[in-house]
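Workshop exercise sheet. Pairs work together: one partner reads the sequence aloud, the other fills in the structure field after running the prediction. Swap roles for the next sheet.
Pair: D.N. / O.F.
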Amino acid sequence: MKPTILLIFIFTFYLYPAQSQNIFIPEKIENPIQKKYSGKIIFLDKFISLENLKEDNILSSSTFQEDKDFGIHAFFDNSLVNYLHKLSPKLTVDQLLKNGNYQFSFYVDGKLIYEENLNTGAGTPENKKLKTSLRIPLTSSNNEDSWGRYLWMRFYLIHGGIDALASGNHILKIEIRPYLKTSSIQTGPIIAEGDININVPQKNISEQQIAVQPIQPNSGWDTSKEKFDIEIIKNLNKKIAEERFKNLTSIVVIKNGKLLIEEYFNHSGRDSLQDTRSVGKSFSSALMGIAIKENYIKSENQSLKAFYNVQQFKNYSPKKDSVTIKSLLTMSSGFDGNDEDNESPGNEENMYPTENWVKFALDVPMTGNTIGKKWNYFTAGVVITGDILDKTVPKGLENYADKKLFQPLGITDYKWQFTPQNKPSLAGGLRMKALDFAKFGQLYKNNGVWNGKMILDKTWIKKSFTNYFVDQPDFEGYGYLFWRKVYKVGNQNFEAYQCSGNGGNKIIIFTHIPVVMVITATAYNKPYAHSQADKMIQEYLLPALNYK
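Structure field:
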């Protein structure tokens, strides 16, 4: 064979290995612990590097405490990309890493509780090509930033782990497999597994913490005399006291316009101003409806060019002129703004450090999406609606909101978050008492009437409580800055429109039953914040009202 041909053959052989060969040669397995426990998961109560790991660090049993260090080392006989290559030998390395990762399965006492195909962005590409071990913190005393902790939170706080690990002794088992998602999901065999005996201590909860809190006088509401299932609410209170539902500050239930349940937690009380973050966005919707009713704004179909010289802002295109108030209220304006995408130029985190939030929003480029069709959560767009109101209503937005909304509802104690221009921010951050947030929800339930006076037009409420995205799968819907949510209890569905804010904050207005609920919480940026609120509503609050 000629030398040139031989070189080409060798180059091709290593660039395109045979199906039975590795794509990458993984790191050498030289550590004695890793050699001994290859294919195993070991459990630790302190974070130790592989080099410093000793046999007596490995736990066979542990007393579980959420605020202590608890984690695993997983040892494999190959790297992830080579496992994925066996699942689909024809894919390139980049395709394998883009479409695959580890699958984790959590078992408690032999029962599968949660299985997750880890997001493909978790972990670095370099590690996936070469590493044969993983150190994964599950809980951390110093809040170590790790995808492992969020994986554990999803298992433990969202998908039933906390209930499976009730007080007592349990066996926790974890299995890891490779998975690849192309036209369908393929999983390989188990590449590491391990279990541990877990003791979960009984928490000392007093009867006072469990008892239903009586409604004190001078609430500003008529007190309901309707019955509810006290035992269910006591069970809920027990879960809150045990911190199985976390960071709750209040629960308020209004039924038939009267105060039925009022409870406070974690040093919060009736007079506490609750920081409900994006719950405040829905107030922009209400104020816009009032301003249109009073003819300060012609309609929600007015476009930006009626209020701004849009050409003076960056990234101008004629499409920007056509953005309507309605498209801002329904978060479908076509701006390249998506708070759920860190790479989006209009992401709210890019807005907050700027000197002028309105300018930031109007500078955001447009996408190719048809205005009014594609939904993306876009906080900066709500800032524009607040500025339009401030420019058009008499004496500005702050005065108008107080006079036209808060005073008629008897709301006197509240606190705005302000923009850098010292204008009320409708992006969120409006603080109120839980009972006053309930008034806002009940106003919608009353078709806009409060104490015999019409504050909001009922036609506006109907528009606000319309789902404008019925054709989008896996999305329950969105109205005029209100989320649509369907709660399921047994065989029944309960539709609601709700204000929703970071931390698990909710004002929930049910459409077909005479109920308004308020939940306030401080689980800011926690992955369980909204799911625990939904769970409380579906498994406790609605059943306690005999909606089951």
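Discussion prompt: The first helix runs from residue 3 to 15. What would you look at next?
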